[in-house]
Amino acid sequence: MTRPFEVGVVVRDLELMERFYCEVIGCRAEHRSRVPESVGGPAGLGGELVVVWLRVPSGGCVKLILPRSAPVSAGAGALPAGRSGLSYLTFHLDDMDPVVAALPAAGARPLSDPVVVRARGRRISFWADPEGNAVELVDARGHDEGSGRSN
Description:
five-stranded mixed beta sheet, 15% helix, single chain, alpha+beta
């Protein structure tokens, strides 16, 4: 491999999702481009696309993809556990507490109760982003402060 890993997420509201992943998760918008139908069509994405590349601070990239010629259908909520295909995006954080605290106001919803769990010496939290995509936050500190719940 010659570059860090990239993942593409097809979205309905490009501005909302860019704000969410930049302001709350901590990514940085790096590039915005129109992709012609000659590329978007064969990729199975419905034709012409608008793509925003978001740099993940630790490396890698999340590409937000908005099909221009075919509307993206609204999801029916969170994706079922155990299904085939992409399950979630994982972000490793030094301190997840400020991110977890900001998620509800940004339109995300927790996927578990308690919101933050401990596993293998780490703190983990699963959320649905504003469009229902699952996001995993991992904090290697492995300890909870206060009551053990983030919200």
